[in-house]
């Protein structure tokens, strides 16, 4: 640091001197420096011509050599660089000093906690019950009648507030709670903060402390506005507020939070919030639940809420030397896990989930605001950060509203499909003003939703795949319909005209949080008109989308992909009707294995409903029971008054199709091979893939008397690799009344313009046009009779509608060869397209 300052001073001397004609250093005059500074402000690095022009235009610089002018600009740029570096080092030094102070306090707290535990250890056997009762700061008030009586008067509320303050401070900076470091969240100079969790007897707790470059009062204002940063907060209402007499305020709050899935009711809280300042200049906002019923939901939605308890929690904000603040956050709640199915209880009893959704989210949001305030964040399309944050919040709350379907928002259940448990709810026009006043022409909005259990599927990987490969699960024409219906002149919207979508998407980033845990973006789906007169008119559909939780190392983090059609002009007040996916990891918990397959008959199990083969017998035992998560899907569809039933049927079919596609995607991204017939498992090194490659080659030789590959001595991975890299397209389809493709080499995927995941959606007849299907019929009969058939040159169609020509096609039966080659069974049909090309 001292060296940087010394260099800075030396550069100041050098920059103001130049060599005269006699070779001596002469100081620039004030007028000369001003002239040079004016040019530098416009162009810090002028060209040789610009420097010569400067000398001609400024007579006071005429006797200075052009080389000396060049040196002056070099020194001036160097001085600017040194200033910036010195400023950066000072900022880093302040940050490290504050972090060091924070770590020293944390170390002192841990030492006190160790001493306390050592003292208590001697009495543990004899007085276990007494020690737990006395040491726990979580114990419920022993006399609820006393709390009820105190809560009826200002003096009683002040007493409760002071008690809440003391308990909160003992958790934030004392030893009242046995905190354990949050897995995967190591403290450091560049980390968000220090995070800890605790599993308590009557609730779960999370704690965070960190450094933020905002003033304490600004932080207090942000944290008290909970709906702005807590995405699960549906509403927060202040019923009563009065001064506490010591400069603080006491508020009585009623808060509703969303349920994360369709499988459990939402939660609400009736709490007291106390805001005050301490003698050392710190600010405190603490909160706890009050006894008694207090405020509650409307009668129409009372059955959709369960009253939860908030134990003493809050925020401690201390001003930091040199600017900024040190924040301590404690969240301690009891979500009443008894009210949810057993398999969901770990979700409601997980301190990691509370930490990610509340504690870490609060600290990250404050840091985001601090970076935006300091101008350290840039956003796309020229939008202000506040506008983009509002878009993110609207997408998130709209998706949560669809998942929960509260009656007081106007939602009512149309029907629940018992076979697949797809719930269809409807919201009429009179309630759509909450979304936008411009939707009065609509008959309403339908929502088709479902929740299901995933096993051994990483949530971050699944959401990332769904984001990057939309064509694998989405129907672009449905997106076009939703976009068209949101316009007053829906039938004039280009999306309603005959359109073919190319399957490609362009993701245009708008902004992201400083740690990239959330991304806001616009997705453009490219489409082309099938009407000749509109051939050159764009038929693209635009979606506004947020993607969160794609970091695989984030413990307990929820992963989401939420999107909504939006006008291509992207107005700030655009109506948004979001749809999307949410995947929530569930901690391992000892329970009956049957609970994993049936959550009160309200869960779809992705791994049990696939019709692409049987899983290995040891798949269930080999899978890790801790790798479980709940996937919630909710899709909303606007409709006109006379089309409600038609749209409801379409919504059910579409969501059923999405679920089927997600099943295949989930199996594809699962790290454990649960299905030997599934496309993406037939990759290099997979035993099933090697076996199928061997069967294909052996059956080809058996029927045609020649080798499919150039070398017949290949085995294992080498044989599979040569088959995958074969120049001709090789595809395999199942033996069903309607054959479906199950495997293809790289040339086959290129010819069909598809992927291994989407391959199982393609039937054999789908790649031929009408004439091609007629020509295939006699050859297909010959294939089934003699085991192989040679087809003449012809044409087929890719999944993108492009025609493909081939010189010859060969088809043969693939046998699952047994050891004696006698009891071989037909496994599938193989096709070889020779010298294919696009027309």
Automatic annotation (TrEMBL):
Which CDD domains would you find in this protein's record? bZIP, homeodomain, START_ArGLABRA2_like
Domain START: where?
150-378
Q: What SMART domains does the annotation carry? A: HOX, START
- Keywords assigned by UniProt? Coiled coil, Differentiation, DNA-binding, Homeobox, Nucleus, Transcription, Transcription regulation
GO cellular component: a single term: nucleus
Record-given protein name: Homeobox-leucine zipper protein REVOLUTA
**Start-end of DNA-binding region:** 21-84
What does the record list as coiled-coil region(s)?
89-120
Mitochondrion as a keyword of this entry, yes or no, is no
**Where do the Homeobox domain residues begin and end?**
19-83
Question: PANTHER family under this entry?
Answer: HOMEOBOX DOMAIN-CONTAINING PROTEIN, HOMEOBOX-LEUCINE ZIPPER PROTEIN ATHB-14
Q: Name one GO biological process term.
A: cell differentiation
What GO terms are given for molecular function? DNA binding
The UniProt entry lists the main location of this chain as: nucleus
Organism of this sequence: Cardamine amara subsp. amara
State one Pfam family annotation: MEKHLA
Domain of life assignment: Eukaryota
